[in-house]
Write a structure and sequence with these properties.
alpha/beta, six-stranded mixed β-sheet, binds adenosine-5'-triphosphate, nucleotide-binding, ABC_transporter_ATP-binding
Length: 294
């Protein structure tokens, strides 16, 4: 049955011969949200995503994507999802415009190919063959092919790997526009700033387990963390932790009579929190192994 969740997963388990890749994952992705799946290499992100896409079978658990179990999905269901893979497709002899139009033809309700090409910033490359595109331009083409079918749910696997900073910003705008148009997006990324910028919620997965799910602002109690105020003077660098950084800055300004040398106010970044969560999970694992529990 369809409900407010584009994705609903309970107790998902996937075993490979020598590895439990996904070990009891629960996950809800609401319609219209951008959800980022974070985790170290080998954590189980791709395996989870591929099960949601219908490319792998779960060993245990319940999986519902757009109201259907992907293991038994049909063509119509497939036309409602879009996938942007890590490895690009290679249709060497078609141009960008031909490829995007060709893909549009597979779907019952596609977007206008010209609008899609413009949206990914490839207008000048319409007549170019994919092998002559740069790495970043190739990724844009991958995104164009993933969205031309007008998907309700878009899977983006490490979409900006290899992008220069400007291309990454442009890509973020593209994703924001898709979100505004109502597309639900599942993003996997190793870039924490990307998750912070784009995601409504993030899930941190490690060793096949979902450690925590939250908004980028509150994950790991981030919102409640104290700020660090640092500055320098003739004695060197100083840093203090405080719940009232504004008052500290005002006091420093008064002390220095204006400009405070090398003043910086920092709250823990999403990356700080992420590394802490992964570190804690690894510590817990070591304790369990020592105790003979694993
Ligand atoms: N086809 C397979 N056969 C056997 N083991 C596999 C297979 N695919 C993945 N694995 C293992 O399952 C675990 C999870 O892999 P997965 O690709 O899901 O991780 P990931 O989080 O996507 O990693 P990355 O960030 O490196 O892409 C890893 O230990 C991996 O070696």
């Amino acid at each position: 049955m369809e409900n407010d969740n584009a994705v609903r997963v309970r107790g998902l388990v996937k075993r490979y011969p020598d590895k439990v890749a996904v070990n009891g994952v629960d996950l809800d992705i609401h319609r219209g949200e951008v959800f980022a799946l974070l985790g170290p290499n080998g954590a189980g992100k791709t395996t989870t995503t591929e099960i949601l896409e219908g490319y792998r079978r779960a060993d245990e658990g319940e999986v519902s994507v757009l109201g259907t179990d992907p293991a038994h999905a049909d063509r119509l269901w497939r036309s409602r999802i879009g996938i942007v893979l890590q490895t690009s497709r290679d249709e060497a002899e078609s141009t960008v415009a031909e490829l995007v139009s060709h893909y549009a033809g597979y779907y019952p309700n596609p977007r206008d190919p010209d609008e899609v090409i413009a949206a990914v910033g490839l207008e000048e490359k319409r007549k170019t063959r994919p092998r002559k595109l740069s790495g970043g331009q190739r990724r844009r083409l991958d995104v164009a092919l993933g969205v031309v079918g007008n998907p309700e749910l878009l899977f983006l696997d490490e979409p900006t790997t290899g992008f220069d900073p400007e291309a990454r910003r442009q890509f973020w705008t593209l994703i924001e526009n898709l979100r505004t148009s109502g597309t639900t997006i599942l993003l996997t990324t190793h870039y924490l700033d990307e998750a912070e910028h784009l995601a409504d919620r993030v899930g941190v997965i490690d060793d096949g387990r979902m450690i925590e799910i939250g908004t980028p602002e509150t994950l790991g109690g981030r919102g409640a963390r104290t700020a660090r105020v640092s500055w320098s003077d003739a004695d060197g660098q100083h840093e203090l932790r405080t719940d009232k950084p504004t008052a500290e800055v005002a006091a420093l300004m008064a002390r220095f009579g204006g400009e405070v040398p090398e003043l910086e106010v920092r709250r823990p970044s999403l990356e700080d929190i992420y590394l802490e969560l992964i570190g804690k999970a690894n510590d817990a694992k070591s304790v369990a192994i020592e105790a003979g529990a694993l």
